[in-house]
Amino acid sequence: MKALNGHSWRMPIDRLVWADPRRRARKLLQFAEVEAQGARDLFRAAEVAKDPTLRRRFFAHAKDEQRHARLFRTRGLALRRTLADPGPDRVLGDGLTPGERGFDRLEVEKEDTAALLAFIHLSESAAARVFNGYGAVLDDDPETRAVIQQIAHDEEGHMRYSHAELTRLAPQRADQALWRARMRRLWRAYMRFALIVAAMMSRLILTLLYFLLLPPFALVAKRTGRQEAVGWHACATRRDDGGGQY
């Protein structure tokens, strides 16, 4: 099977994403978190897998994910140390950038083996394709490119083994499982996009409300303040002729 290459049409976007050193360091650290979470999910999948061959492959995959997390984190921290201002750990819109999403907090105990393998196959295929694309635009950072290309190569291996295990364990359901996994990934991608857009829209609306509504109220308060006398002023004498208690 040939190595997966990133989409050539996306290269200008990838160059823009990775051109900023702060964003580059931030993305690497975020990838480290995703790989670490994927390792935990795969270790759990290995624990519950009944097939001994699949159990060994899940375990080896989990160890690879742990190693990827270390590689991403080490390189990300090294880049951050070179920056005078590393910036925030996360910014709005980070989720719109393509990259490995891990297994989206899958409950592996409740997943059918065919469904889990299909989802892993598609996730690793997407990761390999995207990481190969990222590596192609990092000519000015050979160390980061070497890390990403090494991990992309591993993801291609994960893509192949998961498909082989799927066809071995569920040959008659493989195509259906892959189709359902694609629909599942599309739905989750839509939900991620919708949440990010909703967050952006709410921030925009609140900003507009702040600048459109606050100035009129401030102007009214200022005019009211000008109409009031400055300092202490005498109040009209009030006599209580009602025969109060005192």
UniProtKB/TrEMBL annotation:
The keyword Transmembrane applies. InterPro entries: Ferritin-like (IPR012347), Ferritin-like_SF (IPR009078). It comes from the Bacteria. Keywords: Membrane, Transmembrane, Transmembrane helix. SUPFAM superfamilies: Ferritin-like. The chain crosses the membrane at residues 189-213. This is Ferritin-like domain-containing protein.
